[in-house]
Amino acid sequence: MPRSVHAGPGARPGVIEETEREVRTQLAPPWNVIVHDDPITLMVYVTMALRRVFGYSQEKAHGMMMEVHTAGRSIVWTGAREQAELYVLKLHAAQLLATMEPVAAS
Amino acid sequence: MMLRIRVRKDGGVTVWMIPPLLAQFVLELPGLLDTDQPDAVRRRLFPDPSEDPDIAAEWRRAQHPELFALLADARSVVERDLPSIAPAPSGRSFHLRIAAGHVPAWISALNAGRLALGAVHDVTAGDMDAGRRPTYDERGLAILRIDLYGWLQGALIEA
User: Quick one: closest CA in B to A35, which residue?
Assistant: First the structure.
Protein backbone atom coordinates (compact mmCIF):
# COMPACT_ATOMS: atom_id res chain seq x y z
CA MET A 1 0.00 0.00 0.00
CA PRO A 2 1.90 3.13 -1.13
CA ARG A 3 1.92 6.17 1.06
CA SER A 4 2.38 9.68 -0.25
CA VAL A 5 3.62 12.70 1.62
CA HIS A 6 2.55 16.04 0.27
CA ALA A 7 1.76 19.59 1.10
CA GLY A 8 -1.64 20.41 -0.34
CA PRO A 9 -3.35 23.78 -0.75
CA GLY A 10 -4.67 23.67 2.79
CA ALA A 11 -1.47 22.48 4.31
CA ARG A 12 -0.40 24.04 7.51
CA PRO A 13 3.16 25.28 7.66
CA GLY A 14 5.42 22.85 9.43
CA VAL A 15 2.90 20.04 9.28
CA ILE A 16 3.43 17.20 6.94
CA GLU A 17 0.23 15.51 5.87
CA GLU A 18 0.26 11.95 4.87
CA THR A 19 -2.47 10.32 2.86
CA GLU A 20 -2.78 6.72 2.03
CA ARG A 21 -4.29 5.27 -1.07
CA GLU A 22 -4.75 1.74 -1.97
CA VAL A 23 -3.77 0.55 -5.40
CA ARG A 24 -5.26 -2.74 -6.43
CA THR A 25 -3.67 -4.51 -9.29
CA GLN A 26 -6.14 -6.81 -10.91
CA LEU A 27 -4.49 -9.73 -12.57
CA ALA A 28 -6.29 -11.18 -15.57
CA PRO A 29 -7.86 -14.48 -14.50
CA PRO A 30 -6.43 -17.62 -16.05
CA TRP A 31 -8.50 -19.56 -18.55
CA ASN A 32 -9.01 -23.26 -18.88
CA VAL A 33 -8.85 -25.04 -22.22
CA ILE A 34 -11.29 -27.93 -22.15
CA VAL A 35 -11.63 -30.87 -24.53
CA HIS A 36 -15.07 -32.49 -24.67
CA ASP A 37 -15.98 -36.04 -25.58
CA ASP A 38 -17.56 -36.90 -28.87
CA PRO A 39 -18.66 -40.37 -29.92
CA ILE A 40 -16.93 -40.37 -33.28
CA THR A 41 -13.33 -39.32 -32.82
CA LEU A 42 -10.89 -42.19 -32.32
CA MET A 43 -9.18 -42.32 -28.93
CA VAL A 44 -5.79 -42.74 -30.56
CA TYR A 45 -6.47 -39.62 -32.62
CA VAL A 46 -7.31 -37.54 -29.53
CA THR A 47 -4.07 -38.65 -27.87
CA MET A 48 -2.09 -37.82 -31.00
CA ALA A 49 -3.68 -34.36 -31.25
CA LEU A 50 -2.97 -33.52 -27.60
CA ARG A 51 0.66 -34.53 -28.07
CA ARG A 52 1.03 -32.42 -31.19
CA VAL A 53 -0.74 -29.31 -29.91
CA PHE A 54 0.76 -29.18 -26.41
CA GLY A 55 3.87 -31.32 -26.74
CA TYR A 56 2.65 -33.57 -23.94
CA SER A 57 4.17 -36.97 -23.29
CA GLN A 58 2.32 -40.02 -24.53
CA GLU A 59 1.44 -40.90 -20.93
CA LYS A 60 0.04 -37.46 -20.09
CA ALA A 61 -1.89 -37.14 -23.35
CA HIS A 62 -3.29 -40.64 -22.95
CA GLY A 63 -4.41 -39.83 -19.39
CA MET A 64 -6.22 -36.70 -20.56
CA MET A 65 -7.84 -38.59 -23.42
CA MET A 66 -9.10 -41.21 -20.98
CA GLU A 67 -10.56 -38.45 -18.77
CA VAL A 68 -12.34 -37.03 -21.82
CA HIS A 69 -13.64 -40.49 -22.64
CA THR A 70 -14.83 -41.41 -19.14
CA ALA A 71 -15.78 -38.05 -17.60
CA GLY A 72 -16.91 -36.33 -20.78
CA ARG A 73 -14.34 -33.55 -20.58
CA SER A 74 -10.84 -32.75 -19.46
CA ILE A 75 -9.09 -29.50 -18.66
CA VAL A 76 -6.04 -29.87 -20.84
CA TRP A 77 -4.33 -26.54 -20.21
CA THR A 78 -4.68 -23.46 -17.97
CA GLY A 79 -3.11 -20.07 -18.50
CA ALA A 80 -3.35 -16.67 -20.14
CA ARG A 81 -6.37 -16.01 -22.34
CA GLU A 82 -4.42 -15.21 -25.49
CA GLN A 83 -2.51 -18.48 -25.29
CA ALA A 84 -5.72 -20.35 -24.49
CA GLU A 85 -7.27 -18.95 -27.69
CA LEU A 86 -4.28 -20.13 -29.68
CA TYR A 87 -4.54 -23.61 -28.23
CA VAL A 88 -8.28 -23.79 -28.89
CA LEU A 89 -7.63 -22.75 -32.48
CA LYS A 90 -5.10 -25.56 -32.86
CA LEU A 91 -7.50 -28.05 -31.28
CA HIS A 92 -10.29 -26.92 -33.61
CA ALA A 93 -7.88 -27.28 -36.53
CA ALA A 94 -7.53 -30.89 -35.34
CA GLN A 95 -11.36 -31.06 -35.18
CA LEU A 96 -11.49 -31.70 -31.45
CA LEU A 97 -14.42 -30.29 -29.50
CA ALA A 98 -12.58 -27.69 -27.46
CA THR A 99 -13.78 -24.71 -25.47
CA MET A 100 -12.24 -22.15 -23.15
CA GLU A 101 -13.57 -20.47 -20.05
CA PRO A 102 -12.26 -18.45 -17.12
CA VAL A 103 -11.02 -20.66 -14.30
CA ALA A 104 -13.72 -19.46 -11.92
CA ALA A 105 -16.41 -20.67 -14.31
CA SER A 106 -15.00 -24.18 -14.69
CA MET B 1 -8.80 -58.82 -44.34
CA MET B 2 -6.14 -56.58 -42.86
CA LEU B 3 -4.85 -53.29 -44.19
CA ARG B 4 -1.14 -53.29 -44.88
CA ILE B 5 0.86 -50.10 -44.80
CA ARG B 6 4.36 -49.64 -46.12
CA VAL B 7 6.42 -46.48 -45.69
CA ARG B 8 8.27 -45.96 -48.95
CA LYS B 9 11.84 -44.73 -49.34
CA ASP B 10 10.54 -41.44 -50.75
CA GLY B 11 8.72 -40.82 -47.45
CA GLY B 12 5.31 -41.59 -48.87
CA VAL B 13 3.03 -44.38 -47.75
CA THR B 14 1.36 -47.17 -49.69
CA VAL B 15 -1.76 -48.79 -48.29
CA TRP B 16 -2.44 -52.32 -49.52
CA MET B 17 -5.31 -54.73 -49.13
CA ILE B 18 -8.03 -52.06 -49.19
CA PRO B 19 -11.40 -53.77 -49.54
CA PRO B 20 -13.45 -52.60 -52.53
CA LEU B 21 -16.12 -51.00 -50.32
CA LEU B 22 -13.54 -48.93 -48.43
CA ALA B 23 -11.87 -47.99 -51.72
CA GLN B 24 -15.22 -46.69 -52.95
CA PHE B 25 -15.76 -44.75 -49.73
CA VAL B 26 -12.26 -43.26 -49.97
CA LEU B 27 -13.05 -42.04 -53.49
CA GLU B 28 -16.14 -40.35 -52.06
CA LEU B 29 -14.28 -38.74 -49.13
CA PRO B 30 -13.75 -35.29 -50.74
CA GLY B 31 -17.51 -34.87 -51.05
CA LEU B 32 -17.75 -34.83 -47.26
CA LEU B 33 -15.18 -32.06 -46.89
CA ASP B 34 -17.01 -29.10 -48.36
CA THR B 35 -17.16 -26.09 -46.11
CA ASP B 36 -20.63 -25.48 -47.55
CA GLN B 37 -22.25 -28.11 -45.35
CA PRO B 38 -25.52 -28.55 -43.44
CA ASP B 39 -25.66 -26.63 -40.18
CA ALA B 40 -25.14 -29.73 -38.05
CA VAL B 41 -21.90 -30.49 -39.86
CA ARG B 42 -20.67 -26.92 -39.69
CA ARG B 43 -21.38 -26.78 -35.97
CA ARG B 44 -19.34 -29.93 -35.40
CA LEU B 45 -16.43 -29.15 -37.69
CA PHE B 46 -16.29 -25.51 -36.62
CA PRO B 47 -17.58 -25.40 -33.05
CA ASP B 48 -17.86 -22.30 -30.92
CA PRO B 49 -15.09 -21.96 -28.35
CA SER B 50 -17.34 -20.53 -25.66
CA GLU B 51 -20.95 -20.20 -24.57
CA ASP B 52 -20.39 -16.45 -24.43
CA PRO B 53 -22.14 -15.15 -27.57
CA ASP B 54 -19.71 -12.25 -27.99
CA ILE B 55 -16.66 -14.52 -27.81
CA ALA B 56 -18.32 -17.00 -30.19
CA ALA B 57 -19.23 -14.30 -32.71
CA GLU B 58 -15.75 -12.82 -32.67
CA TRP B 59 -14.29 -16.30 -33.04
CA ARG B 60 -16.38 -17.03 -36.11
CA ARG B 61 -15.34 -13.73 -37.65
CA ALA B 62 -11.65 -14.02 -36.89
CA GLN B 63 -10.84 -17.74 -36.93
CA HIS B 64 -13.26 -19.49 -39.26
CA PRO B 65 -11.57 -18.38 -42.48
CA GLU B 66 -8.34 -20.06 -41.35
CA LEU B 67 -10.17 -23.22 -40.25
CA PHE B 68 -12.10 -23.36 -43.56
CA ALA B 69 -8.79 -23.03 -45.43
CA LEU B 70 -7.24 -25.89 -43.45
CA LEU B 71 -10.12 -28.19 -44.34
CA ALA B 72 -9.93 -27.15 -47.98
CA ASP B 73 -6.19 -27.89 -47.96
CA ALA B 74 -6.77 -31.38 -46.54
CA ARG B 75 -9.38 -32.03 -49.22
CA SER B 76 -7.01 -30.83 -51.92
CA VAL B 77 -4.24 -33.14 -50.69
CA VAL B 78 -6.59 -36.13 -50.69
CA GLU B 79 -7.81 -35.32 -54.19
CA ARG B 80 -4.23 -35.25 -55.47
CA ASP B 81 -3.56 -38.77 -54.14
CA LEU B 82 -6.88 -40.34 -55.13
CA PRO B 83 -5.96 -41.08 -58.77
CA SER B 84 -3.39 -43.55 -57.43
CA ILE B 85 -6.09 -45.91 -56.17
CA ALA B 86 -5.82 -49.03 -58.27
CA PRO B 87 -6.92 -52.65 -58.02
CA ALA B 88 -4.44 -55.29 -56.92
CA PRO B 89 -3.58 -58.00 -59.48
CA SER B 90 -5.91 -60.38 -57.66
CA GLY B 91 -8.77 -57.95 -58.19
CA ARG B 92 -9.98 -58.56 -54.66
CA SER B 93 -8.50 -55.43 -53.11
CA PHE B 94 -7.08 -52.02 -53.95
CA HIS B 95 -3.98 -50.07 -53.07
CA LEU B 96 -3.43 -46.37 -52.52
CA ARG B 97 -0.24 -44.35 -52.78
CA ILE B 98 -0.09 -41.40 -50.41
CA ALA B 99 2.60 -38.90 -51.35
CA ALA B 100 5.36 -37.89 -48.96
CA GLY B 101 4.13 -35.40 -46.40
CA HIS B 102 0.46 -36.07 -47.14
CA VAL B 103 -0.30 -38.47 -44.29
CA PRO B 104 -1.29 -35.77 -41.73
CA ALA B 105 -3.78 -34.31 -44.23
CA TRP B 106 -5.24 -37.77 -44.86
CA ILE B 107 -5.62 -38.40 -41.13
CA SER B 108 -7.33 -35.02 -40.76
CA ALA B 109 -9.56 -35.54 -43.82
CA LEU B 110 -10.67 -38.99 -42.66
CA ASN B 111 -11.45 -37.54 -39.24
CA ALA B 112 -13.47 -34.71 -40.75
CA GLY B 113 -15.34 -37.13 -42.99
CA ARG B 114 -16.25 -39.30 -40.01
CA LEU B 115 -17.41 -36.26 -38.04
CA ALA B 116 -19.48 -34.97 -40.96
CA LEU B 117 -21.25 -38.32 -41.32
CA GLY B 118 -21.79 -38.48 -37.57
CA ALA B 119 -23.32 -35.02 -37.52
CA VAL B 120 -25.62 -35.65 -40.48
CA HIS B 121 -26.91 -38.93 -39.03
CA ASP B 122 -26.83 -37.86 -35.38
CA VAL B 123 -24.58 -40.79 -34.49
CA THR B 124 -24.33 -41.58 -30.78
CA ALA B 125 -21.86 -43.45 -28.60
CA GLY B 126 -24.26 -46.41 -28.66
CA ASP B 127 -24.13 -46.44 -32.46
CA MET B 128 -20.34 -46.71 -32.29
CA ASP B 129 -20.37 -49.56 -29.80
CA ALA B 130 -18.71 -52.66 -31.21
CA GLY B 131 -21.59 -54.79 -29.98
CA ARG B 132 -24.33 -52.75 -31.62
CA ARG B 133 -26.96 -54.31 -33.84
CA PRO B 134 -26.44 -53.15 -37.40
CA THR B 135 -29.29 -51.55 -39.26
CA TYR B 136 -29.71 -52.02 -42.98
CA ASP B 137 -30.62 -48.52 -44.02
CA GLU B 138 -28.90 -45.28 -45.00
CA ARG B 139 -27.96 -44.53 -41.40
CA GLY B 140 -26.52 -48.00 -40.92
CA LEU B 141 -24.46 -47.56 -44.08
CA ALA B 142 -23.19 -44.20 -42.78
CA ILE B 143 -22.09 -45.85 -39.53
CA LEU B 144 -20.33 -48.58 -41.48
CA ARG B 145 -18.62 -45.86 -43.50
CA ILE B 146 -17.52 -44.12 -40.28
CA ASP B 147 -16.10 -47.44 -39.07
CA LEU B 148 -14.19 -48.08 -42.28
CA TYR B 149 -12.76 -44.57 -42.41
CA GLY B 150 -11.70 -45.07 -38.79
CA TRP B 151 -10.01 -48.33 -39.72
CA LEU B 152 -7.87 -46.56 -42.33
CA GLN B 153 -7.32 -43.52 -40.11
CA GLY B 154 -6.13 -45.64 -37.20
CA ALA B 155 -3.77 -47.57 -39.46
CA LEU B 156 -2.25 -44.35 -40.77
CA ILE B 157 -1.82 -42.93 -37.25
CA GLU B 158 -0.01 -46.04 -36.10
CA ALA B 159 2.08 -46.43 -39.27
Answer: B49
